[in-house]
């Protein structure tokens, strides 16, 4: 083994800064994706056919094409078509947010439809209006199915976020590559960056487990 | 209290209820019996519009449910329903199950809702369970809570769809006792049941459905001892 960790020491602050850069657009993407995803899920369980169709086609499109392609299309095609010079950050947030919303909408829809139909009927039979039934009866039960799956989606998004390195955004991944190119040694910086990703994902997983434990208290 | 006129219900091409007409008076207890798949549940579910009738009119407590202008959600407040599989709200305690709809739908005060809820729990013999979650209850206890939950809305009428079919035999009696007590208190009840003992003793009238048709109806003693139709005879021969 021919590892020399001492050489990357001066670059460590530069790479650590990447954590924040990555987290910044991951968090914005998650929030953005969650909001759009919730709206799409409401379309899917609602009774308006055109909205349902739209949400289904949307989901199928974003799940059916590579994420890197979606990113490229937003980053490259938007300026070409509209003349608007879109920043890597905005491209990344749009691509990841829109992509994630497709998965999130499916997670929420599945979580809601996994709630026993008898719950809806019992609430209806008591004269509970639809909106109130959703908020008080269905969603609290659906959350038990939704939150663990949602946490997985956030973990996936965090890892896949490394794809933004391809449009020159200076995220954690890109910084590892930059350091590698400077040193003519790729292994150490990549390994270092890899450990950071792993750490981030571990934190998210622990958070997920904690939330799950809190939710299962009622049973 | 209930007036059903020429009720038809189809699921796609499958005609499940065919021209059912019946009138049920205030305080009457009516048992609905018939073979599996004869449309008993569908009939019951039409009466609170969990199923939308294909044709016909249903009037409950002088509200025409089949009129498009009727607020169905509002009308359901006055029609209690008890299901075979209880369908208690698992994330709420027993008392919260009872107070939820009065609080959120009728908007009475919490103090009043809890007072009424506790009185109902006492009535069904479950005062000690107010803070328990449904998952910790036995089947018989769950069903008694479900009955109390429906009663908490102070309905004019109670629908029961095979309330004891999902219970272990030793728990059937405790639920039937609560229903008997309710019948004696003057509640109008429509009960789909396989418990012929209940139909015989408690019901004022029995109606017999087969293949979506109302074949026969009558006073229990007459119906069980001297059924008129061949289909009712066949059915009773099989189960008694
Ligand atoms: N939601 C539905 N969609 C399609 N068909 C249905 C639906 N609900 C009931 N049916 C059909 O309607 C018929 C009558 O069903 P129903 O549940 O009313 O019978 P039942 O007399 O209550 O039977 P059981 O004693 O088994 O409960 C059956 O053929 C059933 O398959
Ligand atoms: Mg049935």
Automatic annotation (TrEMBL), chain A:
Keywords: Amino-acid transport, Cell membrane, Membrane, Transmembrane, Transmembrane helix, Transport. One of its GO terms (biological process) is amino acid transport. Pfam families: BPD_transp_1. The keyword Transport applies. The chain crosses the membrane at residues 20-43, 55-78, 190-211. Its main location: membrane. Residues 19-208 form the ABC transmembrane type-1 domain. One of its GO terms (molecular function) is transmembrane transporter activity. GO terms for cellular component: ATP-binding cassette (ABC) transporter complex. It is a multi-pass membrane protein. It is found in: Cell membrane. The keyword Cell membrane applies. Belongs to the binding-protein-dependent transport system permease family. HisMQ subfamily. This is Arginine ABC transporter permease. It comes from Halolactibacillus halophilus. The lineage of its organism: Bacteria, Bacillati, Bacillota, Bacilli, Bacillales.
UniProtKB/TrEMBL annotation, chain B:
PROSITE patterns: ABC_TRANSPORTER_1, ABC_TRANSPORTER_2. Pfam families: ABC_tran. Gene3D superfamilies: P-loop containing nucleotide triphosphate hydrolases. InterPro entries: AAA+_ATPase, ABC_ATPase_HisP-typ, ABC_transporter-like_ATP-bd, ABC_transporter-like_CS, MetN_ABC_transporter-like, P-loop_NTPase. Residues 2-236 form the ABC transporter domain. Coiled coil: none annotated. Keywords: ATP-binding, Nucleotide-binding, Transport. SMART domains: AAA (SM00382). GO terms for molecular function: ABC-type amino acid transporter activity; ATP binding; ATP hydrolysis activity. This is Arginine transport ATP-binding protein ArtM. The lineage of its organism: Bacteria, Bacillati, Bacillota, Bacilli, Bacillales.
């Amino acid at each position: 083994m021919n590892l020399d960790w001492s050489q990357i020491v001066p670059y460590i602050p530069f790479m650590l800064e990447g954590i924040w850069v990555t987290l910044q657009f991951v968090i914005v993407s998650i929030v953005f994706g969650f909001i759009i995803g919730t709206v799409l899920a409401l379309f899917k369980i609602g009774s308006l056919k055109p909205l349902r169709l739209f949400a289904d086609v949307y989901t199928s499109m974003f799940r059916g094409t590579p994420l890197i392609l979606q990113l490229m299309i937003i980053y490259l095609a938007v300026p070409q078509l509209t003349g608007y010079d879109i920043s890597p950050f905005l491209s990344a947030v749009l691509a990841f947010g829109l992509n994630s919303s497709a998965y999130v909408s499916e997670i929420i829809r599945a979580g809601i439809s996994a709630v026993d139909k008898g719950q809806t009927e019992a609430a209806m039979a008591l004269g509970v209006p639809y909106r109130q039934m959703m908020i008080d009866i269905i969603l609290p039960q659906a959350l038990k199915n939704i939150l663990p799956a949602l946490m997985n989606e956030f973990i996936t998004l965090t890892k896949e976020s490394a794809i933004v390195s391809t449009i020159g955004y200076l995220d954690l991944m890109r910084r590892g590559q930059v350091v590698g190119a400077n040193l003519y040694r790729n292994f150490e910086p990549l390994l270092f960056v890899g450990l950071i990703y792993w750490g981030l994902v571990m934190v998210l997983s622990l958070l997920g487990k904690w939330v799950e434990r809190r939710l299962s208290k009622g049973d | 209290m209930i007036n059903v006129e020429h009720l038809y219900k189809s699921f796609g091409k499958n005609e499940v209820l065919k021209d059912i007409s019946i009138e049920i008076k205030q305080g009457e207890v009516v048992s609905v019996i018939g073979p599996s798949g004869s449309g008993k549940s569908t009939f019951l579910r039409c009466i609170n519009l969990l199923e939308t009738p294909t044709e016909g009119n249903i009037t409950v407590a002088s509200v025409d449910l089949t009129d498009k202008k009727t607020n169905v959600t509002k009308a359901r407040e006055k029609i209690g329903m008890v299901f075979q599989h209880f369908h208690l709200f698992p994330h709420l305690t027993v008392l919260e199950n009872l107070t939820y709809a009065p609080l959120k739908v009728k908007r009475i005060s919490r103090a009043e809702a809890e007072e009424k809820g506790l009185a109902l729990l006492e009535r069904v013999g479950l005062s000690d369970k107010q803070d328990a979650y449904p998952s910790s209850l036995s089947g018989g206890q769950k069903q008694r809570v479900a009955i109390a939950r429906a009663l908490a809305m102070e309905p004019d009428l109670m629908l029961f769809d095979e309330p004891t079919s999902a219970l272990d035999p030793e728990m059937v009696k405790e639920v039937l006792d609560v229903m008997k007590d309710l019948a004696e208190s003057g509640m109008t009840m429509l009960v789909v049941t396989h418990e012929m003992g209940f139909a015989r003793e408690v019901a004022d009238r029995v109606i017999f459905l087969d293949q979506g048709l109302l074949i026969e109806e009558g006073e229990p003693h007459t119906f069980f001892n001297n059924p008129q139709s061949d289909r009712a005879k066949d059915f009773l021969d099989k189960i008694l």
